[in-house]
Amino acid sequence: MDISLDVLLKRFTAYAQIDTTSDDKSASFPSAERELDLARYLADELRRVGLSEVEMTQYGYVLATLPANGADDAPVIGLIAHMDTSCEASGANVQVKLHKNYDGGSIKLNARDELRPEDFPELLHYVGQDIITSDGTTLLGADDKAGICAIVTACEYLLAHPEITHGKLRLAFTPDEEVGRGTEHFPLAKFGADFAYTVDGGAVGELNYETFNACNAHIVFHGVSVHPGSAKNKMRNAVTMAAEWQLALPMGERPEYTEGYEGFYHTLRIAGGTDKVEIDMILRDHDKQILEQRKEYLLGLARFMQQKYGAGTVECELKDCYCNMKEYIMPVFEIVERAEAAMRTAGVEPALTPVRGGTDGSLLSAMGLPCPNIFTGGHNFHGRFEYLPLQSLQKLVEVLVNLTMA
Asked: Which helix (H) or strand (E) holds 197?
């Protein structure tokens, strides 16, 4: 397929330069008004490309249709990607840099930072390809603007090649996936797909139908602040309590020590002082029963510290976020096999791997819309060292076109 690298780079860069960082502390929806800037841009672009039924809902979801072309009896397939980027690194003023014909060495991002194969050995898989990065001061936003870019480009390609027979496609671009709220107002009935694919995975070839079960935890330590000169037998230091909590977590069950199906406890942030400290954590496991055990461990730790430091000193609030979509995908596993076939036709060998995270598809599958997850080609999401091989994005477009063929 003749998919232009220049078109992909231009389109991705336009998306990346729009700040869509979601806000995990916000109660509004979408969580950040800036997400709507990309939503409006995409709605206008989809109309220019020639898609029909384009709309932006009151909650910021962008929907569109590519009508069937000679295969009216084919299933209606959905393609979904999210517009927001993680708040773990800045998404403002993203400067996209293209490193052509990667030679296998270090990639200089700025005067201080380099993307080195010693730190990220997967880089060596892309020798000879063109690598997209930021300037190392922000994330890149391939998660998930690469997915959006590939979906729009695939639809543009299909419209330009009417000889390709395909069924009806429904597109949805969602806000707030990164804060776990991407399906909160998803217009499922209006979307009307028989099944869908989120385009939100990692390296080229990755195909997922298993995700973590997920729970978020918010812990508050209430101390007593007294001048340190007269604090004996009076001060209760919330910082000390928070440090004790962190040290009590199983050392080997943290993200930096786990892989594959291994779950973890992850402390995202700690804030406060002597009088009060707050901790935000996430708990993840592919096994629902083991996740329940992790939740009980935290509740037991809170009870222990209450006994040690006094009633009311520790609060532990748990909130379930999403579940492993495997149980909803297995009864319709042919949709995974369809994606495998689309990859192989494009010369990509599928790598069925469990997601060490979640996607909008986790909740959508539970809501009745089965949603396996397809690669975007990106690496090192949520951080300043994120990168995207441009040829991987090109290959993704080819896979999506193959996926839609009747």
From this structure: strand 195-201
pLDDT along the chain (406 residues), means of 10: 94 98 94 97 98 97 96 94 96 97 97 96 97 97 97 98 96 95 95 97 95 95 94 94 97 94 96 97 95 98 96 95 92 97 97 89 94 97 97 98 90
Element (H, E) at 131: strand 131-133
Q: Top-level CATH class of 213-322?
A: alpha beta
**1-4, long-range: CB within 8 Å, 24+ apart, which pairs?**
1/157, 1/397, 1/398, 1/401, 3/153, 3/157, 3/394, 3/397, 3/398
Q: Where are the domains of the chain?
A: 5-211+324-404, 213-322
Catalytic residues: 84, 177
The Cβ-side half-sphere exposure at 353, using a 13 Å CA radius, reads: 18
Residue with tokens 């060998």: 349
Identical topology for domains 5-211+324-404 and 213-322: no
CB 216 within 8 A of CB 281: yes
Rg (CA), the chain: 23
Check: CATH 1.10.3370.10 for 5-211+324-404? Answer: no
pTM: 0.88
The first and second tokens of residue 317, run together, are 């609030």
